[in-house]
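Q: How would the structure tokens look for this protein?
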Amino acid sequence: MFLLSCCSKRNGLDPNLPIYIAIHGTVMDVTSCNAFGPLGVLTNFAGKECATAFARTPFRPAYLRNDAGDRLSFIETPSSSNEKGEEDGKENKETLEKWTEVERSNLLGWQEALTTAGHQVVGTVLSPRVFTPGELRTYTGNQPSSSSLSSSSTSPPTTNDGMINANNPIYLSVRGTVYDVSRGRDFYGPGGPYATFTGEEVARAFALMSQDPKDFNDDLTGLSQTELGILSDWEAKFQAKYDIVGKLNKKKES
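A: Here is the predicted structure in token form.
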């Protein structure tokens, strides 16, 4: 399984990563097709959930030609995931029954063409979850979280290749967005310099550069513009480096 944020980073812009697309949450590796690359006609599809866009566009073999170099201009571009962490694939599944027969046929044509071209299914998209503060505090990397072993209640951490890894997860929250920082274990794992942050909401602490537990919250009251800027820098770093696994609901406790 993959997190949606893992797929979105596999959009062809990083030459060290494969290129993935998702169709109703099923992830396919389309790295070998230049059409999905940075200069391809389908470049805007890379790293995204594409079911709706495919359904609205009849498939033509020329779309998957590796020498097709024009920018996307003839297909509706699929949108990225929204800030609430609700992927387009979920909406597509809910509206699938409302699609016309032509739209269903279009989508099937794309799926068959991609499969025939040898593009392999590499996994499925894992939906983000909502954590309570108590649940979040179990993800400190000290030991495998008991709740991380329950597929019905958690979004497990990812390995460096974006695949799900159910062992020793390390999570923290910044302004209600929960990140998997397991790949930064040297910093956030047990004994690391930032280990006190794990399992906590740390927006205020990041802004103040504080490791005082009283600052482990998202209350930004009284912070200066400089301190808010520091927090924004932390958020930008996390969004670029770590995967989002869900949201923190501080009003709900297990």
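The longest strand covers residues 121-126.

The beta strands are 2-3, 20-23, 26-29, 121-126, 129-131, 171-174, 177-180, 243-248.

Upvote if useful.
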